[in-house]
Automatic annotation (TrEMBL):
PANTHER family: OS08G0299200 PROTEIN, TRIPHOSPHATE TUNNEL METALLOENZYME 3. InterPro entries: CYTH-like_dom_sf, CYTH_domain. Transmembrane segments: none annotated. Residues 1-208 form the CYTH domain. Gene3D superfamilies: Hypothetical Protein Pfu-838710-001. This is CYTH domain-containing protein. It comes from the Eukaryota. One of its GO terms (molecular function) is pyrophosphatase activity.
Length: 211
């Protein structure tokens, strides 16, 4: 179970203020491209699951993931997630021809699970109701910081076709403590924020920035 604190920033100015405040802790910045997949008959979304391929910094790295049973309450996200690194060229081939994801069911524990639990993939190209479709996606710029008490912070600028959102995330085993620390830091630095109400994927599927 992945547990994260997610705080939404209202605009680019707040994002810049927080970026400046966190600059002494900066470790690296990634350019990420996120693309999502479902079955031809919405087998994943029907069961509140989603598959994603994420490319880092062009095609320097590619990660396949499966998320399920997500919840987001008072700025704390909980989701079951498994990830695997795959060859970026293979990832691009799956984006171009999503049915190829099904051919990974023998070598990928994620695609094997998707085949067994959701009945998608493993039948090859052109098999109606058994293949994958690409839903599209979004890009984001993610700055990573090594902050206090070993907390790793991720400051995101997410670019959708319909607008840009800004968010601070922190994966932690003690979400209430981390949230209290982050809220105190943001207030001290004069950075406005609110609790995130939806995941980036939910915003993408809604087709609009949420208030």
């Amino acid at each position: 179970m992945e547990v994260e604190v997610k705080l939404r920033l209202p605009d680019a100015a707040a994002h810049q203020r927080l970026s400046d405040a966190l600059s002494p802790f900066h470790l690296r910045t990634h350019l990420q491209e996120n693309l999502f997949f479902d079955g031809a008959d919405s087998e994943l979304s029907t069961h509140f699951a989603v598959s994603r391929i994420r490319f880092y910094d062009g095609d320097s790295r590619c990660v396949l993931s499966l998320k399920a049973r997500a919840s987001l309450v008072d700025g704390v996200s909980r989701v079951e997630e498994v990830e695997e690194d795959i060859d970026p060229a293979l990832g691009r081939a799956c984006v171009a021809e999503p049915w190829r994801l099904g051919s990974l069911s023998a070598s990928s524990r994620i695609m094997g699970r998707v085949k067994d639990e959701f009945g998608i993939g493993g039948e090859g190209e052109g098999k109606k109701g058994s293949s994958f479709v690409c839903l599209g996606g979004f890009r984001n710029v993610r700055a990573v910081y090594g902050w206090k008490e070993g907390l790793m912070l991720e400051l995101d600028e997410t670019n959708y076709d319909f607008g840009t959102s800004y968010e601070l995330e922190c994966e932690t085993g003690e979400p209430e403590k981390a949230k209290e620390m982050l809220e105190g830091f943001l207030s001290e630095k004069g950075v406005e924020y609110s609790y995130s109400k939806a995941s980036k994927f939910a915003v993408f599927r809604a087709g609009k920035l949420l208030p």
